[in-house]
Structure formats: structure tokens, C-alpha cells
């Protein structure tokens, strides 16, 4: 019970929950709104761990200035991720003043956009499809898993102590990649689906397979060489339609992506400059001791 954060008696009531564009911040307790004073600056008082930056007017001005800076840096773009055309649920982690959250909600009326931060410095009144919550994103999330189309984060400075855990929570709460209708995680359900159909004696074996010839073991080195060829020999052919129809990419965007990929090779990658059939025979012959 030591990890539980107690709220003030007048905190987090449901008053105003159905008042359209009014933020839930209106029901926060006074101690959370005021924060704590240290060295002439105001810091957030909510959250299990302390956040290094303040939450006063000077810091809010800096956050909004940085928002304008990133807009210029990204050539008048607010985000770069290849999100769906009509996103439904979006989460803005450590949203600060909420300026990005509001901009995204304004540009995407189809989306229900949630901004979350431990500092209650967001506007009390906002767009109908935009709202804010006060929470510690390093604690277990209470949102439904596999429910967000897009999770955005920027400038998470002086606040994240366990990055792997945060990334893991993001992964669990994003919707599966089903834009093309053929989820890549389907193999994980094969066994249970066969059993659900009534089949008996279903056996599932999982093997680790390298994606390039980096293993020391000769057998796995050969497997990795074949898998590398499998993934790269026709990457453009098996991906173009998926990217265009699933992600909405144009032909030019797809061409640029595959051109860059062809010129990017991992350090452990090597392909012999001989025809594929001869290359395969050379590897097989070497492995079989011929």
C-alpha cells in the first residue's frame, strides 16, 4: 500500500465531468494545483517521484516556445508518425501545457485526444475532443490495453527513470497493426485457435531464428543467411501494397523509403556478389562439408 498516492478529500470529484469541453482539472485539490515551492520556483506535488523541471509561468512559456520551435524544425509538421487517416484515440504523454494535445485535437476531429501530466498546467476549457488527466506515467497505466491509435511523447527530460518499462506500456496500449487487415502477431494465436476448433494433441514449438549470418553456430549461421535473403531480396515487392493501402503512403514516399533501405546494411550483414542460386549452393555445400 506504500505505492498508493492519497488524494485530498476534495480531489477528483466527478463534478463537471459532462460539461462538454471542460477539463477534469477543475476538480483537482488545492495542494495539487498549487504545487510546492522550492528556491523561488513552483514544482508539481503529484506523482510518486519528483519531476526535475518546475511548472510555473516561466516554464510554461518555455514549453510553448519549444512547441513553436519544433514546428519550424519539422517543416511545419506537428508529428511524423504514419498514423491512420482518421485516428480514434490518441495519448500525449507528459503533455506539459497541453499545447500539442490541443493542436492535434483541432487537426483531427475524429480523435479523442488525452493529454496526461503530473503538473496541472493545462487549460481548464478546451476542445470537445480534447481532455487532460493528472497522472504519473511511470506508474501502471489504467487505460485499456490495445486501445490507442497513436501515443505521442516529446521532451521527456528529467522525468523518466525506467525507459524500458515506459516503452513496454506504450507497446501494450497501442492497437495491433491491422491497417491492412492481416495482423503480423497472428502466429501467436495459432495453437489456441486450433484447440478452440476442437483439434486434439496440438503441439507448438517456438524456435529462435537469426535474421542475418551473425551466429557462431554453423547451422544457425546458414539459417540466418537464408533469412536475410528472404527478408531483403523482394522487400519492395511484398511491402509496397501494404504501405500504400494500409498506411496511406504514396508511390513516391514508398520509393524513397525502399531506396534508403537498400543503402542501409547492418554491420553483421554480408551477401556474396554472386548469383543467388550459386550463393545458396556455396553456403549449403560449406555447411554439409562438401
TrEMBL record:
InterPro entries found in the cross-reference section: SAM-dependent_MTases_sf
Keyword Methyltransferase: yes
Pfam families attached to this UniProt entry: Methyltransf_23
UniProt keyword annotations, A-Z: Methyltransferase, Transferase
Molecular function in Gene Ontology: methyltransferase activity
GO terms classed as biological process: methylation
SUPFAM superfamilies (UniProt xref): S-adenosyl-L-methionine-dependent methyltransferases
UniProt name for this protein: Related to methyltransferase
Amino acid at each position: 500500500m506504500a505505492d498508493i498516492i492519497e488524494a485530498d478529500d476534495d480531489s477528483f470529484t466527478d463534478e463537471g465531468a459532462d460539461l462538454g469541453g471542460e477539463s477534469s482539472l477543475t476538480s483537482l485539490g488545492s495542494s495539487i494545483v498549487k504545487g510546492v515551492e522550492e528556491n523561488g520556483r513552483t514544482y508539481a506535488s503529484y506523482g510518486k517521484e519528483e519531476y526535475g523541471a518546475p511548472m510555473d509561468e516561466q516554464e510554461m512559456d518555455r514549453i510553448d516556445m519549444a512547441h513553436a520551435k519544433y514546428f519550424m524544425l519539422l517543416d511545419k509538421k506537428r508529428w511524423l508518425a504514419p498514423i491512420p487517416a482518421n485516428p480514434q484515440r490518441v495519448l500525449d504523454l507528459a503533455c506539459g501545457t497541453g499545447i500539442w494535445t490541443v493542436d492535434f485535437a483541432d487537426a483531427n476531429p475524429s480523435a479523442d485526444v488525452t493529454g496526461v501530466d503530473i503538473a496541472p498546467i493545462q487549460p481548464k476549457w478546451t476542445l470537445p475532443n480534447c481532455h487532460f488527466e493528472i497522472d504519473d506515467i511511470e506508474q501502471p497505466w489504467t487505460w485499456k490495453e490495445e486501445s490507442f491509435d497513436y501515443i505521442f511523447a516529446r521532451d521527456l527530460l528529467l522525468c523518466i527513470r525506467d525507459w524500458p518499462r515506459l516503452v513496454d506500456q506504450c507497446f501494450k496500449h497501442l492497437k495491433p497493426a491491422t491497417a491492412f487487415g492481416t495482423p503480423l502477431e497472428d502466429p501467436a494465436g495459432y495453437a489456441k485457435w486450433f484447440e478452440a476448433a476442437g483439434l486434439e494433441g496440438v503441439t507448438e514449438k517456438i524456435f529462435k531464428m537469426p535474421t542475418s549470418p551473425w551466429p557462431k553456430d554453423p547451422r544457425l549461421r546458414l539459417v540466418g543467411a537464408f533469412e536475410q535473403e528472404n527478408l531483403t531480396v523482394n522487400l519492395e515487392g511484398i511491402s509496397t501494397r501494404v504501405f500504400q493501402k494500409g498506411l496511406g503512403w504514396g508511390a513516391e514516399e514508398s520509393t524513397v523509403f525502399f531506396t534508403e533501405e537498400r543503402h542501409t546494411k547492418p554491420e553483421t550483414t554480408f551477401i556474396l556478389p554472386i548469383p543467388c542460386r550459386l550463393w545458396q549452393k556455396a553456403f549449403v555445400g560449406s555447411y554439409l562439408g562438401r
